[in-house]
Design goal:
Metallo-beta-lactamase, Chain A; globular; binds zinc ion; alpha/beta; 27% strand; seven-stranded mixed beta sheet
Length: 262
């Protein structure tokens, strides 16, 4: 599918990653590779371009594991550390070294990045080997390398995060509710990747059942739960899910069905 979009789950884990340091529960001690979850991130690819969603603290290892050597843009969801703190590793990934790498996000996110990681955004810097980044505030739908990227506003507890839709794929991590205007942007999905942290409720994340309820209202054909905690045992719990729903794991990849551009 030369013209299609693929999405690869680079990290399917919650903010601690799984195994959790110091934890000796069955999942953290499991040898099942699908229970070993790096911090949440994904890679969209089409037409030879690679667009990273978030720079997790595990970005370096994710690149080594999946043979990623360049990215052409970064879409950020929000400014929590588990989605941002691999930002320095972007220095070796810029696909066009003569230009700064464009990083996209909501205004608050771009402000946060450019103050917290100022050395990466300054045009003149004494720091030699550094990421050279250009922040771009997302106002609404944007076009990237011939594809339409639709930002999806999400509620993440008292804060907001952005999800992204490309064609009939949508990636919605870190959310506890989806406003009505965003629901309207999520019709006709083939693949929905969505936050499904754990079975118990959580103030800032959908639980597994809340995510499934929401996805079923949308009638998404395939639902992939991500940002998973160590409460989720892949083999044990996968079999309890409805047929169209699955747990994400690091390295899971899928592509859109339609080859037409949208
Ligand atoms: Zn997170
Ligand atoms: Zn554990
Ligand atoms: Zn978060």
């Amino acid at each position: 599918m030369a013209d299609g979009v693929t999405i690869k789950i680079l990290g399917s884990g919650t903010s601690t990653g799984v195994p959790v340091v110091g934890c000796s529960c069955d999942v953290c001690r499991s040898t099942e590779t699908r229970n070993q979850r790096s911090r949440c991130s994904a890679l969209l690819s089409w037409g030879g371009y690679h667009v990273l969603i978030d720079s997790s603290p595990d970005l370096r290892q994710q690149c080594l594991s999946h043979g990623i050597t360049q990215v052409d843009a970064v879409l950020y969801t929000h400014n929590h550390a588990d989605h941002v703190h691999g930002i320095d590793d972007l220095r070796v990934l810029n696909g066009s070294p003569d230009r700064p790498l464009a990083v996209y996000g909501a205004q608050q996110l771009i402000q946060h990045l450019s103050s917290s990681f100022r050395y990466a955004f300054e045009s003149q810097s004494k720091v030699g080997f550094r990421p050279r980044l250009k922040g771009v505030v997302i106002a609404d739908t944007l076009s990237l390398f011939g594809r339409k990227i639709v930002p999806i506003r999400l509620l993440h507890g008292d804060e907001t995060a952005l999800g992204y839709r490309v064609g009939d794929l949508a990636y919605l991590t870190d959310c506890s509710a989806v406003p009505e205007e965003s629901v309207a942007r999520l019709q006709g999905l083939r693949v929905l990747v969505i936050d499904g942290l754990r079975f118990r409720n959580h103030p800032t994340h959908f639980s597994v059942s809340q995510a499934i309820d929401f996805a079923q209202k949308l009638k998404a054909e395939r639902v992939v739960l991500t940002h998973l905690s160590h409460d989720v045992d892949y083999r044990l719990h996968q079999q309890l899910l409805p047929k169209s729903v699955e747990f994400a794991y690091d390295g899971l990849i899928f592509c859109n069905r339609r080859s037409s551009r949208s």
